[in-house]
Amino acid sequence: MSxxxxxxxxxxxxxxxxxxxxxxxxxRIEREQTEARDRDRLxxxxxxxxxxQQLTVNKRLMIFTFLLVVTSAITSGISLYQAxxxxxxxxxxxxxxxxxxxxxKEMQTGQGATDTHTLAQEAVTQATQTTNLAAAxxxxxxxxxxSIQQASRLAKAxxxxxxxxxxADRPWIGASFAIQDxxxxxxxxxTVTFINSGKRPAKVTLTETLTIEADLGSNPIYxxxxxxxxxxxxxxxxxxxxxxxDAGIMSPISKEVMEQxxxxxxxxxxxxxxxxxxxxxxxxYWTHACWRYGTNQLSYAQxxxxxxxxxxxx
Length: 314
Prior knowledge:
By secondary structure, the chain is of the alpha+beta class.
């Protein structure tokens, strides 16, 4: 741990292991920048290690889910096969019962009925037992179907839980806006800052920005020169910014144009979009943002507030 002092010559004194060290203002700034870079590098290394551990856990969850689905499919196949056999047995038993009943009626009304009465009664008894067996087979088939449905619900619940774990740690990129020189005689300069506030790194595949004197609602058409066709990575907590100067009727802003802007006759909109991927799952996400000039909001970002449309994310 070091302490700092300033002597009469303007040099700074800091202590390293109890030994005073003299340094100039430039040396102090360079040292502080080096320390800041070291802290940032340590944070990124720790974050990447956490991401690697999370990836291992997620892979195990996915393997478990896959094995559960396979087991459920095999169990379902066996259960369906047994249910089909039980149904066939039930159909055969029903047919035998109907045949026995018909035979009994023929015996009771035909010649020699008295001599064959005992045989007919035995046939009825056997048909009744067969019918009871068929009913039991139907009940077993129903229990098997219920077991199949329960296994399917368990597999679906496990899959949903695994998906929720992955989504909870996904990257989330938001946007903020700042403007300078929004006044008569100057050309406005805009800055849109995108920051990853999620828990995993994001691979940025596209950023687009647009300033226009029109309300395009939820369907802005970005100009080719506003497109940044580059790829970059944002670790959690890191940001990237798009900066540009106005190149339209506000370059620079005349007094007449400013009066029309403040009266609402000229609507001013700033649109921004970023597309990115989760480096772990490859899932594609995006964030849209829009700001508009509001005459009653001069204390906020020189009058710019969020639009009622286009501020959305996936």
